[in-house]
Design a protein that fits this description.
Blueprint: H1 3-8, H2 36-44, H3 58-71, E1 75-79, H4 82-91, E2 99-103, H5 108-117, E3 124-128, H6 133-139, E4 144-150, H7 162-171, E5 175-179, H8 184-187, E6 197-201, E7 215-219, H9 221-235, H10 241-251, H11 254-273, E8 278-282, H12 292-298, E9 305-310, H13 315-324, E10 329-330, E11 340-343, E12 364-368, H14 374-386
Helix pairs in contact: 3-10, 4-9, 11-14, 13-14
Length: 388
Amino acid sequence: MDLSYILNHLGEDRETYRGAVSPPIFQSSIFAFPSVEAFRDGFRDEFRRTTYTRGNNPTVEILRKKVAALEGAEDCLMFGSGAGAIAAGVMASVSAGDHVVCVQRPYSWTRALLRDLLSRFAVAHTFIDGTDIANFEQAVTPATKLIVLESPNSMTFEMQDLAAVAELARARGIRTLCDNSYASPLNQSPIAAGIDMVAHSATKYLNGHSDVVAGALCGSEQLMREVFRGPFMTCGAILAPHDAWLMIRGLRTLQIRMQRIAATTQLVLAFLQAHPRIEKIYYPHSETNPQFALVQEQMRGASGLLTIALRTEDVAGVERFCNALERFLMTVSWGGYESLMFPVCAVHPAGAPLKSGGALPLNLVRLSIGLEEPEVLIADLQQALAAI
């Protein structure tokens, strides 16, 4: 199935929608049935049938088909956030007494799920350096039921060898889940590498317009039905029909957005690598990345998220740089049409030291490259670096 067909046509039964090129928004919470038997049939399989929008909705169903196809998965469930998608995949996989292995420095709410929430219900966890397969071998126990990956992660971009982890997990009967938000389905295919479930903060590249908060969880139909019967229907963290429609619209331009963002990022990267105020650059597709060989083997292309370490004596220098930027908006998240920045120092009290034990150094600033002209972004970075 070719990419253009998935983005533009898959799941869109236009004859049913009176020839509408853009699918309608089924803004209905409930769906009526002509008979008791038909109603009974609807309850038999809410995963497929439209009975109540908390379970399935025609607009959301179109999006499910597209995202599943992009990931090479049998099926997909859409959620109201990426945190909801990851939480559902994890909760459907563990019970009291089980153990989870997770890479260090995951998405903050993945960490909170394991450390703060599930630990209250006797689910143990171990955070490890996922860059070495030996660390997984040492961390798993007879109680391990799930391995949670994030490759690359979204701050310092450490990767895991997905095929090696999948092989290890299968041999021990352990389920695997990978957050693929950074790469997007265009640039990495965890399921093809043997991973069981793939999660996305669909707020990011999949939607691409900074106007929807959404999550996706992909996998086999059997696994998705298991998630559906459990945390999906129980917790109700669903995606609204209108948001699903906005995401379908966003997907139309996924390929060209990613191509433009990657091309611009390469030009920005070249500028930053040559600047004396840049101490270090974290970016998977930089040749200085110690995992560059794995990047080339496992990923098809680059995206636009990178982190720079500024060469400065104190946090005040970081703040001067960030405050001087005019074309990069200071905010959370990434992956939209606009360029963004996220200084690590913003989540620490004023006056904190640049480096503290164990935590990320406060001279790190994450940049999300958008669709602006590269020369405009480079000029903005140049004047802001001069302000340090």
